[in-house]
Specification:
The protein is α+β, with helices and mostly antiparallel strands. The chain has 4 helices and 3 strands. Strands 2-1-3 form a 3-stranded antiparallel β-sheet, with helices on both faces.
Length: 88
């Protein structure tokens, strides 16, 4: 499991069907447990695509910064996201 980061984190997980899901969290370890069904919660998208694996994370000090970066990543093509993951 990833270590807990202070503040906010933008992350990308690879789902069992090889799709990519991007989100933000303050407690990434808890959020991954939710996505994988070990804890209550998680996104509807990932519930049908378990298990998920963390492939990218980027820390931010504020929710605003994290949200802006999440928006940028979600606007990227799959190829751009894969390049980001590879570089990260």
């Amino acid at each position: 499991m990833p270590e807990k980061q202070p503040g906010w984190c933008v992350y990308i997980v690879r789902c069992a069907d090889d799709s990519l899901y991007t989100g933000v969290a303050t407690d990434l370890e808890r959020r991954l447990q939710e996505h994988n069904g070990a804890a209550r919660g998680g996104a509807k998208y990932t519930r049908a695509r378990r298990p998920v694996e963390l492939v990218y994370q980027e820390p931010f000090a504020t929710r605003s910064e994290a949200g802006k970066r999440e928006y940028q990543i979600k606007a990227m093509s799959r190829q751009q996201k894969l390049a980001l993951i590879e570089a990260g």
